Amino acid sequence: GAGVSQTPSNKVTEKGKYVELRCDPISGHTALYWYRQSLGQGPEFLIYFQGTGAADDSGLPNDRFFAVRPEGSVSTLKIQRTERGDSAVYLCASEAGGTGELFFGEGSRLTVL
Amino acid sequence: RKEVEQDPGPFNVPEGATVAFNCTYSNSASQSFFWYRQDCRKEPKLLMSVYSSGNEDGRFTAQLNRASQYISLLIRDSKLSDSATYLCVVDNYGQNFVFGPGTRLSVLP
């Protein structure tokens, strides 16, 4: 497709479970970002990839969160031992060539019961 | 102090009004500045970049004051379709982008 695609769009899980969220960026975009957004707040930075490597993972809140981008395209955000506080919309964005324009997917809404 | 702060809002204005949003940032090394728009339950989308000399796009004008670390967005002749949350965005040492909490605008008929 032409835009950033995220799956699943909605995920409900129980506390303690493992979750994977997938992002398929715009073809040719080398930079990929993960953010999470809680109701009434702005997106909070989690991690940034340039190609296959994580250029900045300073936003990951703790070691339960991990993200990969093995072939420099699709990325997966992995959350272990989910907690209720992890409930949020997880947004993925890709960027073309340092323009500063982020193209966001529609997000994955995670609810931890 | 938060890295990017914005007017808390919400702003409720009548159609045709002029409204201004303010944003301050803490990282004096930041080089890139943007305004994004986010409709309810949708993803953010770029509204406009903010340049040092100030820039205008139709009814929208953005200003940057580096000395005061302050960014503004002015919307003239507000339309119902301008109702959204406006997010101020600043780069962080060229690595990632920091979003402000957003200011919600409701334009009323």
| SS elements, strand count of chain B | 11
What oligomeric state do the depicted chains represent? heterodimer
Q: Give the termini separation of chain A.
A: 33 Å
Count of separate DSSP helical elements of chain B: 0
Mean pLDDT of chain A: 94
Largest sheet of chain B: 6 strands, mixed
Low-confidence stretches of chain B: none
Q: Helix content range of the residues of chain A, please?
A: under 10%
Structural class of chain A: mainly beta
Biggest interface between protein chains, with counts per chain? A-B, 21 and 21 residues
Mean pLDDT of chain B: 94
Q: Class by helix and strand content of chain B?
A: mainly beta
Give the biggest sheet of chain A. 7 strands, mixed
Strand content of chain A: over 45%
Unreliable runs of chain A, pLDDT <50, ≥5 residues?
none
Topology of chain A as a string of helices (H) and strands (E) = EEEEEEEEEEE
Determine Rg of chain B (CA atoms, Å). 13 Å
Question: What would you say this structure looks like, in words?
Answer:
The complex is a heterodimer of chains A (113) and B (109). With 113 residues, chain A is mainly beta. Helix content of chain A is 0%, strand content 50%. Chain A is built from no helices and 11 strands. In chain A, strands 2, 4, 5, 6, 9, 10 and 11 form a 7-stranded mixed β-sheet that branches. Chain A has a 4-stranded antiparallel β-sheet with strand order 1-3-8-7, with no helix packed on it. In chain A, β4 and β5 form a beta hairpin. The mean pLDDT of chain A is 94. By secondary structure, chain B is mostly beta strands. Helices cover 0% and strands 55% of the residues of chain B. In chain B, strands 2, 4, 5, 9, 10 and 11 form a 6-stranded mixed β-sheet that branches. Chain B has a 5-stranded antiparallel β-sheet with strand order 1-3-8-7-6, with no helix packed on it. In chain B, β6 and β7 form a beta hairpin. The radius of gyration of chain B is 13 Å and the shape is globular. The mean pLDDT of chain B is 94. At the A-B interface, β5 of A face β5, β9 and β10 of B.
